[in-house]
């Protein structure tokens, strides 16, 4: 089959795109994705999904790809990474749909496939566990790590936004956050205070500014350089594993669970957590409020009101 596809590509493929390979179309498709009005983080995630498609089917003639081949790819990924499998299927549908539009194929082989069910398996983070993790971090890790945990809890923001927070983002008595994932722009008042840990946003920022010289980023290593996102997650997991037993089922709480904990604690204070988290719909915020086991850049800044 591989030899036949190779011969077809090198003969008929020279005169008709219908006989070219998945890998050939991927070159064109990447350029199409790059021109779409989506954030850089989304483009990176889509390229990652595309790599799985090309790695598995890159040598196949576009018009010969069958639904069961895509299904087998998705099922193989789903066995280890359920969320990734869902993203790959979505990308495959977009990939072949664009090929139909551009005349490379007549039908989308991914169209009949249904997304695999992704069950939520990650445990929520409780305040007591957060406090234990933070205390261990203060005693055993570089000074930026416990400050990262406080900043995550007080602001309720994602890891990618924590990593780029800078002194230059503070003006008019607010921390300004342009969320990388959504483009939502938030004004978080420095007076915002998380009563559960007795820390205000002003306190958290001042503590970050004072511990080391270097770049303007609030989180930085001892040499003054910004911390990378992978290190942020790895350090949190190191501290978590030191004090919290691994669950017998499901996945342990990740750094991202600080965002859910922040939402739940602030909601109890009466804070508008939909604005705090930068969600467009209350239903999304309510997912973060579920304890389980326990606007974009074209619009203006959304100020969080503090009573």
Strand order of the largest sheet: 1-2-3-6
Q: How many individual helices? A: 13
Name the quaternary structure.
Answer: single chain
CATH class of the largest domain reads Mainly Alpha
Cα(first) to Cα(last) distance is 68 Å
Strand elements, count: 6
Mean pLDDT over the residues: 88
Question: How would a crystallographer describe the biggest sheet?
Answer: 4 strands, mixed
Give the CA-based shape. elongated
Architecture of the largest domain, CATH level 2? Orthogonal Bundle
Overall number of structural domains? 2
Structural class: mainly alpha
Q: What is the structure about, briefly put?
A:
With 307 residues, the chain is mainly alpha-helical.
Describe the overall structure.
Helix 4 (about 65-80) runs antiparallel to helix 5 and helix 6 packs antiparallel against helix 7 (about 145-155). The chain has two domains: about 1-100, Tyrosine recombinase, N-terminal domain (DNA polymerase, domain 1), CATH 1.10.150.130; about 125-305, hpI Integrase, Chain A, CATH 1.10.443.10. It has helices spanning about 1-10, 20-35, 40-55, 65-80, 80-100, 125-140, 145-155, 160-165, 200-210, 230-245, 255-270, 275, 280-290; strands at about 170, 175-180, 185-190, 195, 200, 300-305. A four-stranded mixed β-sheet has the order 1-2-3-6, with no helix packed on it. It has about 300 residues and is mainly α. The model is unreliable at about 10-15 (pLDDT under 50).
């Amino acid at each position: 089959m591989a030899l036949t596809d190779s011969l077809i590509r090198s003969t008929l493929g020279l005169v008709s795109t219908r006989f070219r390979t998945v890998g050939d179309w991927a070159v064109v498709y990447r350029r199409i994705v790059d021109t779409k009005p989506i954030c850089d983080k989304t483009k990176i995630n889509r390229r990652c999904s595309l790599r799985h498609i090309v790695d598995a089917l890159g040598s196949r003639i576009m018009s010969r790809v069958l639904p069961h081949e895509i299904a087998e790819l998705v099922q193989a990924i789903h066995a280890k990474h359920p969320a990734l499998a869902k993203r790959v299927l979505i990308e495959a549908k977009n990939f072949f749909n664009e090929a139909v539009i551009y005349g490379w194929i007549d039908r989308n082989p991914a169209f009949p496939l249904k997304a695999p069910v992704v069950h939520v398996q990650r445990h929520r983070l409780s305040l007591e566990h957060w406090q234990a993790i933070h205390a261990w971090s203060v005693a055993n890790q570089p000074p930026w790590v416990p400050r990262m945990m406080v900043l995550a809890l007080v602001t309720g923001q994602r890891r990618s936004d924590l990593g780029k927070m800078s002194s230059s983002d503070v003006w008019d008595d607010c921390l300004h956050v342009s969320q990388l994932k959504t483009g939502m722009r938030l004004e978080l008042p420095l007076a915002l205070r998380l009563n559960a840990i007795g820390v205000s946003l002003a306190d958290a920022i001042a503590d970050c500014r004072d511990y080391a010289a270097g770049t303007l980023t609030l989180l930085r290593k001892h040499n003054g350089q910004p911390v990378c996102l992978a290190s942020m997650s790895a350090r949190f997991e190191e501290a978590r594993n030191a004090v919290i037993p691994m669950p017998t089922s499901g996945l342990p709480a990740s750094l991202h669970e600080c965002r859910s904990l922040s939402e739940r604690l602030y909601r109890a204070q009466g804070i508008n957590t939909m604005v705090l988290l930068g969600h467009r719909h209350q239903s999304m915020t309510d997912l973060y409020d579920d304890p389980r086991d326990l606007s974009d850049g074209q619009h203006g800044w959304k100020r969080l009101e503090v009573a």
